[in-house]
Design goal:
single chain; 193 residues; two-stranded antiparallel sheet; 6 helices
Length: 193
Amino acid sequence: MKGKYPYLILMLMGVALDLGTKEWAFHQTQQEIAFRIPVVQTEYFKLDWHKVENSGGMFGVGQGLGGVLRYFRLAALGLVVFFFLRTRPYARLFLTSLSLIFSGAVGNLYDSFFNEGKVRDFIEVYLNFMPECIFGKLFQPWPTFNVADSMILIGASLLVIQLFRDPDLGEKKADRESEDDHSPGQVVEEEQQ
């Protein structure tokens, strides 16, 4: 665990940010009849707080599967913890991505267990230059989401970048550096002691 404390702090801050923003947003929208508060509106972009309880997965996928998804989230969280514990501290991008995924998973898992299997979403984004209807159906490219969803998406994107950039997580480079640290004289001294 040595050298991983900054990532643990990132995890705690991420969980606190997610749960805090959900509490704040749902408290703000409780007073609103339509549960929608405009935040930013420009010619090309619109951001609203929109109170939604999502019984599906990230970005609203799999509606109604909250109970099943709860256990999937728990298993995925276990995998993240496993890889976090097994990864060496010098794999910074990999550990950062795992920390963000962990934070988002814990935030949504908390909601899943303590909000009747539903996750609280509140961020709604519109790009005004996108068409409103496609083939006669309302087109909304991004469903309502939360900070946890954003952290999971950013963490997964960083993970993909890491795996394309350095699939062995710097193991070969670290092995070469550790070999370079030991000059032949040092090895002899260590063997004699």
